[in-house]
Amino acid sequence: MTYVVGLTGGIGSGKTTISDLFAELGVEIIDADIFARQVVEKGSPLLEKIIEHFGQQILTAEKELDRTALRQIVFNDEAEKTWLNNLVHPAIREAMVKKLQESTACYVIWVVPLLIENKLTEFCDRVLVVDVLPEIQLERATKRDKSKEETIKNIMAAQVSRDERLSYADDVIENNLPFELGLPLIKEHVKALHHKYSILAKKEKECQKLS
Question: Where does this protein hold ATP (predicted)?
């Protein structure tokens, strides 16, 4: 299997910005959010089960899943969140692991918001955490998702704490500065990490050949 760098961080930390910068360098990106959308796309068996459970209120006018509406329900009701996670997480996990196993890239950036929460670090050779102060996280996520502040706070509470997330990190990118100020610094950090990961991946593959 290819060398896997798990990229994670709390809601609003800037994971997409970071993964996009790696993509610009030609790195293969495997994004959990893409698989999360695929398994519940219009007409899928899992979406039908979600509609059956929650009703038509979680659909858009185009009969697709309204993720914001569903989020407002499940992150304010622990039992409903558990039901949904038990339904979709195994399907997402299976699809992602299959993709990782099929990859022939030198290394991949595997973007998983719940990498630690769902105990997926076992599939990673290295963990990269995007770190941000909680108050900045709350502000960014509320503005981006157009969600109620209470909902974002509930999502943050459902994720591992900042300290616990950092305890899993092999590498950390801090993303506390405003976008325009922080981006040039982050770009340089990503370039340095890309160089580092390329070397580590090549060494790993040589070790695999020897064994």
Answer: 12-17
119's CB contacts (< 8 A; 6+ apart) are none
The residue length of the chain stands at: 211
Tokens of 83: 């039901």
**Domains in the chain, CATH or no CATH each:** 1-28+106-203 (3.40.50.300), 35-102 (no CATH)
Angle between helices 67-74 and 45-54 (to 10 degrees): 50
**Span 148-177, average pLDDT:** 93
Q: Is 17 annotated as a binding residue?
A: yes
**13 annotated as a binding-site residue:** yes
Which tens digit of pLDDT belongs to each residue from 27-59? Answer: 999 999 999 999 999 999 999 999 999 999 999
Q: Chain centroid to CA 49: how far?
A: 24
Instruction: Provide the token pair at 187.
Output: 């770009």
Report whether 15 belongs to an annotated binding site: yes
Note the maximum CA span of the chain.
57
42 marked among binding-site residues: no
Give residue 181's identity as a one-letter amino acid code: L
